[in-house]
Amino acid sequence: MEQNNDGSLTQVRHVVLVLSGKGGVGKSTITTELALALRHAGKRVGILDVDLCGPSIPRMLSVGRPDVHQCDSGWVPVYTDAQKSLALMSIGFLLEDPDEAVVWRGPKKTAMISQFVSDVAWGELDVLLVDTPPGTSDEHLAVLENLKKHRVDGAVLVTTPQAVSTGDVRREITFCKKTGVRILGIIENMSGFACPHCSECSNIFSKGGGEELAKLTGSVFLGSVPLDPLLGSSIEQGKDFIESFPDSATFSAINSISQTLLESLQT
C-alpha cells in the first residue's frame, strides 16, 4: 500500500465518497447500511460523516454523543461494536448541544473538514465511507483536496427514481468528471415500496431512473433499494437492520450492492 505523510489514512485500503445531488434521497441511510453490510462481510469499516449541517449517522448507529478522545496520532474514532470493526467520526460528536445549528462560513467549514480528514486515527480499515453533504459545494472540494493527498478510490452516487433527483445526480456526475473522481456506481434508493405484510413492491414514485441514468452516462448501476418500513424503523431506533431482517428483499438488495462495490474496488 502506498505510504504518505498522512498518518491517519496510511492503513486505510479503500476510500469511497457517498454523494447525492440533492438532500432527502437517503444518502446517510445508504452509507450506514453499506457500512453494516461490509462489516457483516468481515471487513473493517469506517464512516467519516462530514455532512456538517445534518450529522445523522451517530443516531442511525445508536452511539449517542460520546466524548471524543485524542491519542498521539489524532482523534480516536468512536467504535460501534466491541470488536472495533465499525468506526465512526462525526461533527455531531463535537457540538455542545445536539440541537445547535452549524452556522459557519465557508472557510470555517473547510478548516473543520480538513481537520476531520487529516486528524482521525482510523488505524487499519478495509473501507472508509465518506458521507458528504448534498450538492457540489466548497465542502466537497475540501473533502477531495484533503483526501486526494492519500487516495480516493471513487464515488457512489445515490438517487431516487424520479427525473428531478436523477437530474441533480447528473450534475454530481459532471462534478466527479471535472475533479477526476472515478464513479464506482449509482444506487437507486426508495425504488418502490416494500409492503411489510406481503412481499409485494409497489412503485409509489416512478422506477428505473437510476438504471437509465447509469446507462446514459456509462456508469455502473449498483442496484435498487426499496422504501422499506422495517428499514426505516431500524434506522430510527439505531438497530442493525441487516442483523434483524436477514430474510428480507431489502437486505438482499443492500448485500448485493455491497458485494458489487467490493468487487469494483478490487479491480
UniProtKB/TrEMBL annotation:
Keyword 4Fe-4S tagged: yes
Chain residues that bind ATP: 21-28
Binding positions for [4Fe-4S] cluster per the UniProt entry: 195, 198
Cofactor dependence: [4Fe-4S] cluster
GO biological process, one term: iron-sulfur cluster assembly
InterPro entries reported for this sequence: Mrp-like_CS, Mrp/NBP35_ATP-bd, NUBP2/Cfd1_eukaryotes, P-loop_NTPase, YlxH/NBP35
KW Transcription (keyword) present: no
Major localization listed first in the record, in broad terms: cytoplasm
Keywords annotated in UniProt: 4Fe-4S, ATP-binding, Cytoplasm, Iron, Iron-sulfur, Metal-binding, Nucleotide-binding
Gene3D superfamilies from the UniProt entry: P-loop containing nucleotide triphosphate hydrolases
Cofactor binding, per record: Binds 4 [4Fe-4S] clusters per heterotetramer. Contains two stable clusters in the N-termini of NUBP1 and two labile, bridging clusters between subunits of the NUBP1-NUBP2 heterotetramer.
Compartments, as annotated in UniProt: Cytoplasm, Cytoskeleton, Cilium axoneme; Cytoplasm, Cytoskeleton, Microtubule organizing center, Centrosome, Centriole
Signal peptide: none
Gene Ontology CC annotations of this record: axoneme; centriole; cytosol; nucleus
Any one GO molecular-function label of the UniProt entry: metal ion binding
PROSITE patterns: MRP
General function of this protein: Component of the cytosolic iron-sulfur (Fe/S) protein assembly (CIA) machinery. Required for maturation of extramitochondrial Fe-S proteins. The NUBP1-NUBP2 heterotetramer forms a Fe-S scaffold complex, mediating the de novo assembly of an Fe-S cluster and its transfer to target apoproteins. Negatively regulates cilium formation and structure.
Quaternary structure and partners: Heterotetramer of 2 NUBP1 and 2 NUBP2 chains. Interacts with KIFC1. Interacts with NUBP1.
Family of this protein: Belongs to the Mrp/NBP35 ATP-binding proteins family. NUBP2/CFD1 subfamily.
Protein name as annotated: NUBP iron-sulfur cluster assembly factor 2, cytosolic
Gene: NUBP2
